[in-house]
Design goal:
The complex is a heterodimer of chains A (421) and B (1084). Chain A is an alpha/beta fold and 421 residues long. Chain A is built from 11 helices and 20 strands. Chain B is an alpha/beta fold. Chain B has 6 domains: 110 residues, Rossmann fold, CATH 3.40.50.20; 196 residues, 2-Layer Sandwich (D-amino Acid Aminotransferase, Chain A, domain 1), CATH 3.30.470.20; 157 residues, Carbamoyl Phosphate Synthetase, Chain A, domain 4, CATH 1.10.1030; 136 residues, Rossmann fold, CATH 3.40.50; 65 residues, Dna Ligase, domain 1, CATH 3.30.1490.20; 162 residues, Methylglyoxal synthase-like domain (Rossmann fold, 3-Layer(aba) Sandwich), CATH 3.40.50.1380. In chain B, helix 2 links the parallel strand 1 and strand 2. In chain B, helix 17 packs across helix 19 and helix 19 crosses helix 20. Classes of the chains: A alpha/beta (421), B alpha/beta (1084). The interface between A and B is large, with 68 and 70 residues.
Chain lengths: 421, 1084
Amino acid sequence: MTDGARALLALEDGTVFAGRSCGAAGEASGEAVFNTSMSGYQEVLTDPSYAGQIVTMTMPHIGNYGVNEADMESRGVFATGFVMRECSRVSSNWRAEESLRGFLTRHGVVAIEGIDTRRLTRHIREAGAMRAVISTEDLDPASLVAKAAAAPGLAGRDLVAEVAFAERFVWGGEMPPECEIPVDTGVLPANPRYRVACLDSGIKYNILRRLAELGCECIVLPPTTTAEDVLALEPDGVFLANGPGDPSAVDYLYETLRDLLGERPVFGICLGHQMLSLALGASTYKLKYGHRGGNQPVMNLLTGGVEITSQNHGFCVDFSAIGPLMPEESGGLAHDVDDLGAWVRSGVAPVVRSERFGRVQLTHVNLNDMTVEGVRALDLPAFSVQYHPEAAPGPHDARYLFGAFARLMDGDEAIYEVQGD
Amino acid sequence: MSRHDRALVERQRVPRRDDIHKILIIGSGPIVIGQACEFDYSGAQACKVLREDGYEVVLVNSNPATIMTDPEFADRTYVEPITPTFIEKIIAAERPDALLPTLGGQTGLNAAMALAESGILDAYGVELIGATLPVIKKGEDRKLFREAMERIGLDVPKSGYAYSVQDAERLVGEIGFPAVIRPSFTLGGAGGGIAYNVDELRDIVTHGVALSPVGEVLVEESILGWKEYEMEVMRDAKDNCVIVCSIENFDAMGVHTGDSITVAPAQTLTDREYQTMRDASLAIMREIGVQTGGSNVQFAVDPDDGRLVVIEMNPRVSRSSALASKATGFPIAKFAAKLAVGYTLDEIPNDITRETPACFEPSIDYTVVKVPRWAFEKFPGTDTTLTTRMKSVGEAMAIGRTFAEALGKAMRSLENGRAGLGADGKDEFDEEHFDALLATPNEQRPFYIAEAYRRGWTTGEIATLTRIDPWFLDQIEAMVAAENAVRERGLDGMDAEAMRAAKRSGLSDAQIAYLTGADEAQVRQQRLDLGVRPTFKSVDTCAAEFAAQTPYYYKTYEDEDEVAPSDRPKVMILGAGPNRIGQGIEFDYCCVHGAYALSALGYETIMVNCNPETVSTDYDTSDRLYFEPLTLEDVLDICDAEQPEGVLVTFGGQTPLKLARALEERGVPILGTPPEAIDLAEDRKRFAGVLDDLGIAYPAAGTATTIEEAVEVAARIGYPLLVRPSYVLGGRGMVIAYGEEYLVRYVRQATEVSPDHPVLLDRFLEGAIEVDVDAVCDGTSVYIGGVMEHIEEAGIHSGDSACCVPPFSLGTDTIDRIKTHARDLALALGVRGLMNVQFAVKDEEVYVLEVNPRASRTVPYVSKATGVPLAKVAARVMAGRPLAEMGLPAEDRELGRYCVKEAVMPFGRFPGTDSILGPEMKSTGEVMGVAPDFPAAYAKSQLAIDYSLPSGGTAFISVCDRDKRSVVPIARHLQQLGFSIMSTTGTARLLRANGLAVREVLKVHEGRPNIVDAIVNGDVQLVINTPFGRETRSDGYHIRTAAVQHGVSNITTLAAAQASAQAIEAMLSGRLDVIALQDFGGTA
């Protein structure tokens, strides 16, 4: 209910929303985006990929089940602001340890409730993601709009350095000092089968939990770690994490990756997928308003099955930029590489040739807007997906991809053979 | 591409099933408690989509009031009993390739199982599609289901099976009290309950074992007070699985989900818990093996530690899937039908966005609340506590941005006179049992919760008593706080912000009026003056992520309005609201036909309704759908937004009709018959004047405002009398008084007689034949759609009596006089559209009992019986088209068939209530029997309800004195048919005197073994027992109750007894053939 102090949300195009504060007092700017997940606000808030963004939840009731330590996806909150229709007054769940309001306040997150979040969502859908400011201090709409217009955007911005851990650490071992909250590591392997070097660009804890469950010893490394240092660890595989910002600005990471490709099996998620794609020669572009939610349908072109996936990305990979189509490897078809809908309808996973790394296959496509969701190198062991198989929040349909990583590290070719688990 | 990958690509192609051409769909039969018109919605969608895809559809459904049985919805439509015998005849005649069993509720599924198990499907080469027999069994059979859950490592409540009281007691020794008892294979959990002690255990188990077709009950660990959830799942042949909707029950475990307030989406689960439940749902779908289609899985969660247990799954579309479809805009039944013929979810476009595929999970950015509608007032003597056995007769759904807003809307949608969650001047609380009424689930509990907050209770205290989640309670607390804020400010003290806050908390104008001592019109004016106007938002399946192409709206108080009215001429159709006794699917049928007809004339049609079970609230039915309560406030708001050229108020029964005057006064144009004519027909004095002018007879009548006056009026008119309070509708509280003593007792006890609330007294025409007429008038001419002769004599509510088209015993001259009267009345009243007249024929005289210038309950039945779609004809008339240009068939044509409508009674659901018929309507639904002669048609109507007619054995006959003479030929007929006759002393003496052999049996109070023992022991196959006056707890009551409980055919009127004897003869002669509506001829 709206009993907090007055607060305003202003967009760079002059649109202003009035509401009430339900978090920390102050002012925050970022790119306004919306997330359509109906549960999992805590995981969203603590996902480092949301750095630089003001997140609007389309679900009108938020905060209902409170907040707890086990559901943290990182050491803190990375979204710069939070927008809700109604922030619950009570926390009703057997695991609740704190109210969302208390949590937001404690983490210094400026949050606003009581606004027409559907109007905001429709506005972003039509006008595209844009810069915004939430304030509990400056209630002058014109002034706030000016601040929004002056705020830094995401395009061309590297936020990875801001969210990654400064020091390397082993998952399940001692956490770095910046991590103040106890961590739920999940089940750790007694005798690890694999050693995985995780290049941290804002890694979510649930990725590490999933890898650990798979039998991996996870060594989390700062994003600036050199290929040489990575290989010195003699890892069985290299994992590229999710993360915030514009992937094209994180050139050091995909340059490092180019030196690792072919040396060790590689699996990338989200920003990690963009890193792999960029390393293979693709380009990336900014989506109008991104994919953020837990209901995105993705077709696995190799099985024809559809996964309901958890997503959070504002940038996307241009697959055709990797290189020319190889019709003989693409079911004999010569569709336009960019017409992903045509490949989906034919049930064929097209293959292009990367000048430096050989054949690259498009493996996953988003059925809502027919954009790239997954690629795989055929001449060296590497694959990646744009979405979040680790979920948290979101459905578990794509968990099989962790199994695929294990098979890749085992040297299997048919890594996608088993779907579901 | 590797060979491996190519093989995978090959495997993914699942083609449309071109090997099947003709598909049989089984409907769910009559509306009963636990199985309402949601299956008309799902079945109609399936028929439509399969035919669009080029399949031939053969349909069987005994319910004529359904849209799906409209002849244009299937290639071959059989309004026949849903029994293996009849369906086999249909299969033999039609030779379908496949049977889709998952769309006709439990009835359809049971019939399909019976057909499969008996080998009929194999014999005719009919394939079950969607779900095979082993799948259905695994989903339905609790034992197999438990085993399946254990195989996939899911937790279920501790339980065991009992076949006797002894078994049950042994199990409870292990499980402990309270224990939940669930009979196997009964509809809507019939016969189930919660036992807190040994006595209750014995009672429920005895009853449950008797009701279960396999004589089995599950005795289960109580998870009372746990949180309850439902998941609606869909799966396609490629194993793509999606959750369409999660539903959280407001009421804790222990209340049947059909009787619970439910909320979508789930509100109090963390993502971890939600995903665990999602994983479990998909695993269950796969383990049970539902190949394609929708299923419903129910879970319980321990609020203290999160333990998740699986309760059950339904491998078919259900009431919840209809709710989920309406709640999300994702049409489960429609897609289930497509999946059954081989399509996959990714091949089906999302209807609403049109751009994105159906293979996704809807995200909703609003809150949906469903509240059940009960009708306990109709069944005195029954226990009104809500249990695991469903008792509600309907439901209303409301959409708001927040739970509070949606709950407020739902509470004012129920058509029970309430304007919201209390604070409307109608709050009444039982002070003595206040805490108990909070602690036990019951119809009034939400009002008690709000009141508890008003009295200063805390959420913790209320949660402890109710076991309702504190999050829901907190929302109610906020609603009460909003009430208080309004009360404190007063209407004049409310500025725009305060008004907006009140509206956003779900308060109606009527509640604000009550709280501020203003009237509703003042509140509306003040609100509009302050600029506080509602906004309309779309239901779009995707939380606005993509643009919605389908105009499906709800109202809320927000910043942005998404409705852009078109410039096409538009009409608004007001629906019928929640199903309840007296107002059922028939009115929804008329509204849907109204939309179809007006759309065909080029109008943009706008539907307003709040019943999620219906076809009218399918966004495919009209051009625009507003899912809103049918209150003056909500309807006016939509009128303001849409500015319709006309509003259709006469198709949706009482609900929209009662708004007609107020809408007209506020300048809303009313289509067709003017409200003035409606008032004229309802005003007894003025209407009597009309009848006098036309020279039409009517029963003598009078009004009394005191007991003395009532006695005086009665003496003038003469007994027997039909007596009723003036201020209730639908026969509520109406009785027949045969003498002064009863009259005085009734007036004193049952009514609050006063000058404001007079009692109406009419001469009761005992023994008269009742006749209904449905007609359409265009102002200059009248078309008589049908003349219905009732089987039961006058005195039984027309909604509860069987009737026949054409009349089977009336003379031509009488029928002509009836038609002439109807014509004269329609013209005299100025009817433009539909009109229903009730007549009574006694001693050659034709009396008019009642005229209703609106759609009646019988319109769908008459339309189906005659092949003339009366509601469509009437809609065209209301749009200004003359009857003369419609090419309607001659009224006096030979139909060449008899169509009998029979009412379906819910007595089995309400143990303790008497099963006699009277002037107060109690039926929930209807069936139709069609045959070349009346007895065969009547036989089919009985078979359609009971699924069997006794073919021999013992007939127990006990009738009141006035029926004694007339019962003799009936008894003789039954004896000739091979029945042996059993009677109590009086009737036995009479029958023996007439040369019949009779076995005598003791009355209940005469000792034992008596007639009730005989019924319980299965020694009686047919009961004919006519009551005298309003007896309670008498012999008759015990006999009828025992018959209802033990499923013995139970006839309470002589006319029905006579018809039944003829029907049994028709059945025994083996001449009950099946007939398709498409073979009737006539226009449709």
